[in-house]
Amino acid sequence: MTEEIIIAGFGGQGVLSMGKILAYSGIMQDQEVSWMPSYGPEMRGGTANVVVILSDDRISSPILNEFDTAIILNQQSMDKFESMVKPGGLLLYDTNGITSHPKRKDITIATIEGAKEASELKNKKTFNMVILGAFLKVHPIVKMKNVHKGLENSLPERHHHLIPLNEEAIEVGMKKVKVIQDLKQLHTTI
Q1: Which CATH superfamily is domain 2-189 in?
Q2: Where would a tag sit more exposed on the chain, N or C end, judged by fewer CB atoms within 10 A?
């Protein structure tokens, strides 16, 4: 099994952290892992994305032109990466700020109102964990016990008291995600 993922949005949305937690989770499952961040000089407000590859085999290159999964957190990233999802892949996006929704019919599409759910948790910094929970519900590629270990490894020890809140945000994302186009169901009805 190899899963090639792009997570893309604005700096400050926790894009790189989400990717790091997925990468650590893969390591805990004895998988080969690649984590390759890319961000502009602006830090907050600029564009940011991270490519995460989890594989049972050696990873030959972290440079990809297409992905099994795209997790999209803003319109600019939707415009850039929607076409790069492999046929049969998954596109998960936060509905906040998306004005042009995906049009493809050859992929599974899921949505989450991550900003709204994080606000309801009274901590906007949980946004990325809501998104991660939504992803793991639709595509459970890592075990939750390893996500917990990933949180421990990626958060500085002084922030470990926030792990329960982050786990709660993951659970919220799992409950609130909506699959709006399920490719598996489309094929069974045709």
Answers
A1: Pyruvate-ferredoxin oxidoreductase, PFOR, domain III (3.40.920.10)
A2: C
Q: Is the dihedral of CA 26, 29, 127, 108 positive or negative?
A: positive
Q: Please, what's the largest Cα pairwise distance for the chain?
A: 53
Q: Copy the structure tokens of residue 28.
A: 């805990």
Tens digit of pLDDT at every position of the chain (190 positions): 899 999 999 877 889 999 999 999 999 999 999 999 987 665 566 678 999 999 999 998 888 899 999 999 999 999 999 999 999 999 999 999 899 999 999 999 999 999 999 999 998 889 999 999 999 999 999 999 999 998 988 888 998 999 999 999 999 999 999 999 887 765 444 4
User: What residues pair up with 157 in beta bridges, in sequence order?
Assistant: none
pTM confidence score: 0.92
Phi, psi torsion values for 83, nearest 5 degrees: -70, -15
